[in-house]
Amino acid sequence: MSASAEMPYFIKPSINVSPAEKRSLYDAALQAIDANLSAESNLFLKMVTINALLKTYLPHYYWVGFYIMDEGKLKVGPYQGTLGCLYIELNRGVCGKAATTGKTQIVGEVHSLAQGTDHIACDPNSQSEIVVPVFDAQQNLIAVFDVDSTLPYSFDEIDQMYLEQMMKKHFTVVSLKTNYSLN
After folding, report:
1. For the whole model, what pTM was predicted?
2. Helices 19-37 and 157-171 sit at what angle, rounded to 10 degrees?
C-alpha cells in the first residue's frame, strides 16, 4: 500500500496554536494523562492513553504514536492516525536518528530531508515532526514517541519540554524485566 496525498475522511488537518495556547493545552492534557495513569504500570495501556489524550487535546497533532525497540529495530506500536511504517531500521529516518542518538529530534519541514534515509514518508500529508526517545528506569531505550503535523514548523522547544518530561515521568519507572509487556 502506498501513501496517498489525499487526507482520509477520519483525519483532521493540523491547526497550529500560539505558544501560550500550546502550553495551556499541554497542561490540560498532562492533567488528564496523570489522572488516568497515576496507578498504571502496563506499558501498552500507558501508550494508548497518552496517544489518545494528546491527539484529543493538541490540534497540531496529525499522527501520534510509539515505535518500540525490538530485535534491533523499531516496530510500530500503539498509534493514532493513518497507517504508520511497520518497521524502521535504526539507520533510517527521524525515528531512527532519535533512537541512535538518544536525543529528541525536531524537523520543521520533513520533505526537505533526504527521502528514504533521513526521512521515511509513511504519509505525504505529514509536513513536520518531533520524535522523543523513551527510556526505562535503567536508561535502556524502549521506544521512540513520534508526532507528525500536516503543517510545517508545528513543533518547538515547548513540545520538546512537555513530551520529554511526560516520557520520563511515565516510562522511567518501567523495568524491562518486570513490566515491559504489550500484553
Report:
1. 0.87
2. 10
